[in-house]
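[Q] Does anyone have a clean structure-token version of this?
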Amino acid sequence: MKRLRSILKWTLITIFGFLFVGFTASEITIALLRHQASDTDLYDYQTVTVDDLDIAYRTLIPEGDQTLIIVHGFLGSSYEYVDLFDGVDVETFNTRVIALDTPGFGMSDKPEDYLYTNQNHAETLLKAIEALEIDSYILLGHSLGGEIAQRMAHESAAVEKLFLLDPVAPDAEMDPVRIPRPFYTVLFKNYWFQRLGFNSAPVDPLPKDIFRPALIQNHQIPSRILQKFSEDVDSEFPVDFVSEITIPIFITYGEFDTWTPPELLDVYLELYPHAESAFIEDAGHLPYLEQPEKTTFLIENFINNE
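[A] Here you go.
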């Protein structure tokens, strides 16, 4: 028995020592990365204030006869899209492009007293777009941003078209869950766990210079805010109101997406029988980073009715 206690004691000491060293090394690594990124365009953004919240946004293409608004997914940000339109003929595309950071993510405010439901996110972003004096626009939502975008389209007649990129299931109901904050600190804010999770989304691992800005931004999200995302849940879902969304819709998935399986396309096409659709070859859950040219090709064709 004494020997067993000794083994257990040293096992626990080893585990906690390993976690401590790993956590410390992660914090040092992220601090160094943040310092290296201090002079990059990661911090080149603007804000608009609504309901005492600063909502960050990036203007990717400054001019055009029409406007495209981009809403990122969970643990994403507007920065992920800064290079998406680099290969686009701006004059032919003729579309202003703005990417937003939802509250809690990217460079937007992260207040503890905010209700982090998808519906509240949709309402906040609609107010931000109105504050930017944009009267009509095309809306693109990726992953969880796809659900937020559907809610925005349902709430506002200003949305002319809807482009859903690897959207989550339209009926992804969940119960409120309270998970201890250390869980979020260890998993969501740790360099190695973030890297592992990030690499599980695309078909092939993406370069570190794509991953690191995402890590820097996600690391600055307070654990309490990440905790609230599992506590603040919606009572209504897109499946409950899709019949009221009659604008043109395009739905696409990366053909090898393992986070939001491409089989969901069949579900969406039953809900939106008038929608156009396609798969993006050789892409997983992040087609806009994995296959940017194929992604922008579909966006351009949809926007310009080709």
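[Q] Thanks! Anything notable?
[A] The longest helix spans residues 2-36.
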